[in-house]
Amino acid sequence: ASYFFMTRGTLIAIEGLDRTGKTTQTTKLINRLAQDGKDVELIKFPERTTAIGKIINTYLTDKTFQLSDESAHLLFSANRWELSQKIYDLLDQGKTVVLDRYVYSGVAYSSAKGLLFDWCYSPDIGLPRPDVVIFLKFKEEENFEREGFGDERYEVAEFQQKVKIQFEKFSGQDNWKPVFVDGKNIEEVGELVWKCYTDATKQALGPVQN
Ligand code: NYM
Hints:
It comes from Ogataea philodendri. One of its GO terms (molecular function) is ATP binding. Belongs to the thymidylate kinase family. The chain is an alpha/beta fold. It contains 7 helices and 5 strands, in the order βαβααβααβαβα. It has helices at residues 22-35, 51-61, 69-92, 103-112, 117-121, 157-168, 186-205, and strands at 11-16, 40-44, 96-100, 132-137, 176-180. The protein has a 5-stranded parallel β-sheet with strand order 2-3-1-4-5, sandwiched between helices. α1 (22-35) packs across α7, α2 (51-61) packs across α3 and α3 (69-92) runs antiparallel to α4. It is globular. The chain binds 3'-deoxy-3'-aminothymidine monophosphate.
């Protein structure tokens, strides 16, 4: 008889402050995973095409659109719940799933507005837990003045600083891997991102215990 073992895929979340090159690095990681023979699927949050995602898109792009901070927060969370079964299914099929933003953005952006951190976290409890969360960050605050800020809601330097503080509260989690982008080019950051992934998958195999 022959036996076929199917292991579940790896769940990777890429998080970062706005304008840290998150989208560029996500694309790079996906290409590299594919080259490595992985069957990769990208899910970007907010997923703006679903029913809830459409409201979120309007909220983000139209500053005259009125929504309380609490309602907005719950919509972002609900948007993740819309996709949660799909994530489990993809992982079960052995796919590597890359999430461009996830729970951590949800909590960081809303608690930066003044909502309680634990309140923000609660609606996301029970969502699939990433094997690794790669967090792209700046050391230097002056990067918040980078060109391109200010197009969408939240893209204000002062607010970004508050978001950064909230993101840091996750740094104690064992799946949390920070990557500093200051002074590094796309290739260099890409190497660091890849190392986060390979370290995490080694860890998932489990260390040899004596
Ligand atoms: N954002 C994103 C939140 O405020 N809460 C969330 O749960 C998520 C997933 O949406 N400024 C914010 C962060 C971003 C904005 O994301 C749009 P992106 O990656 O720029 O499309």
